[in-house]
Amino acid sequence: MSIRLRLTLWYSGLLAAALVAFGILIYAIVYQNTMGSIKTRLMNEADKVYVGSRLNSAGDLKILIQTSNSLDVSIAAQAINYTKDPAGRIDMQTSNLESLGIKFSYPEFDGIKEGRYHSETLAGNPFVIFEKALVLPNNGAVIGLLQVGAYTGKEIGYLSQMRTILWIAGLASLVLAFVIGLFLARKALRPIEMVTEAAERVQSGSDLKLRIPGESQDEIGRLTRTLNHMLERVEKAYNVLEESNNAQRRFVSDASHELRTPLTTIRGNVDLLEKVWSETSFGAAQDEQEGAVAKPKLSLAEREELSREALHDISDEARRMSRLVNDLLSLARADAGYVVDKEPIDLLPLVEEVSRRAGFLPRKAEWVVGPFDALAGVRVVGNRDYLMQLLFIFIENGFKYTPDGEVRLEVYRQEDRIGLSVSDTGIGIAKADMPRIFDRFYRADESRGQTAGTGLGLSIAKWIADMHRASLDVQSRPEGGSRFTVWLPVDFSERPDYGIIEASVRPAVPDAEQS
């Protein structure tokens, strides 16, 4: 049974009980007022009846009644005599009672009760009868009983009609209330139905953008707003998870692609070395396999030359794989929430070391540095090796995408932060590529291999900047040239007044190779 039907039944049951109680109360009030009015009228009419007595020829006492002209025609009276017989006898009746040929029932002498009322139906006619004892005025002895009755057919019919009306009105009200209750319950519970539908659609995963309409300020409205906030959070969490899964799939796919190329090159060169230094060499083996004209065998010098070229290719691809694995390790650390060790660092010697070592990197562009006066006395809290790696990523990208022109390293000071900027006059970055330059394996070139690298450098740079609570500013001009600036918060803590000797092992930052 649905909540809507249960609520309607409860409401209808309570309404039915209220209607029954109300009907009983109304009927009781009307009944009491009607019967009370009749009884009062009977008492008043009894006072209008003149009762007398006389002795007949046999010496018996006979009771006489005489009604006044003002006696209501619906009132009938009779006198009961108990002087000769305790069971009593009717001495006299009013004319209207005689014309009907009926008699009121009366009690025996011992059953006389002063002022008693009772109802009686005679020949199908309902009466309410009032009884009054008759006494002798000289000694107060009870000699008879006066019964005054009123015909109550009209009143009984009225009360019967009233009962019928109350029943019909009650049933009609109950049916109407049931129908209206169903409608109101459905309307009141419609938001809950919408919540259920939304939950079912969310469960099926068909529409996470679904929101439940409704701005009411009642409990349903509060529930709706709470669920909308929950759905919004679920949608965000789902989108983040979906984006993470897609990124992971792209990551695995791109990593496989990047690793497949050097592995294929290494495998091809190994096969070449095996053939070059095999006993059959290129001569007889090819004759047997291809049935072609015999080719002269390679000389020792030619074998050595081919071997050197193959080993050089293997070495290059191995270094490339090493860089890729290191980059993947850095990104894995980033995903795992790895926190780098940080300490106060003087920026001036760090930047000077980077500028010196960058001068030895292979390049075609001019390398321009400085001035670094703004770094005098400036310290930041960070990791020296990772900050150097971040700068080398920007510098190597500048060399890579600047076939001619210049790559420049500059510094800027803005209140409580210091900016390290690497700019170039190279090909620049397209506006459409700007939002994705920090995505893993993303490169502006559609086909891989047009430029060296793995597309992981800027992703690592972004992670390093985040670890140092730094911000990255990227600018690119349509006519060419880009600028990468990392803004580091300055450390204003006082320097210790004593020397500290440190000994640590740090991973070497490559001089000529950087992802």
Structure explained in plain terms:
It contains nine helices and 14 strands. With 515 residues, it is an alpha+beta fold. It has helices spanning 3-48, 95-100, 153-204, 219-276, 283-290, 300-335, 347-358, 384-400, 457-467, and strands spanning 49-55, 61-67, 75-81, 89-93, 116-122, 125-135, 142-151, 343-346, 366-369, 379-382, 406-414, 417-424, 471-476, 482-489. It has three domains: 3-159, Beta-Lactamase (2-Layer Sandwich), CATH 3.30.450; 262-332; 340-489, Heat Shock Protein 90, CATH 3.30.565.10. The strands form four sheets. It has a five-stranded antiparallel sheet with strand order 4-3-7-6-5. A five-stranded mixed sheet has the order 9-11-12-14-13. The protein has a two-stranded antiparallel ribbon with strand order 1-2. The two termini are 67 Å apart. Its main location: membrane.
Determine the strand fraction and express it as a percent band. 15-25%
CATH topology category name of the largest domain: Beta-Lactamase
Using only C-alpha atoms, the radius of gyration works out to 58 Å
Q: What spatial form do the alpha-carbon principal axes imply?
A: rod-shaped
Secondary structure: number of strands: 14
Q: End-to-end span in angstroms?
A: 67 Å
Tally of structural domains: 3
* Unreliable stretches covering 5 or more consecutive residues: 281-286, 446-450, 496-515
Looking across the biggest beta sheet, what order are the strands in? 4-3-7-6-5
Order of helices and strands: HEEEEHEEEHHHHEHEEHEEHEE
Strand-pairing-aware structural class:
alpha+beta
What kind of sheet is the major sheet? 5 strands, antiparallel
Treating each run of at least 4 consecutive H or I residues as one helix, how many helices? Answer: 9
Average pLDDT: 78
- Proper CATH architecture of the largest domain: 2-Layer Sandwich
- CATH uppermost class of the largest domain: Alpha Beta
Query: What percentage of residues falls in helices of 4 or more residues?
Result: 40-55%
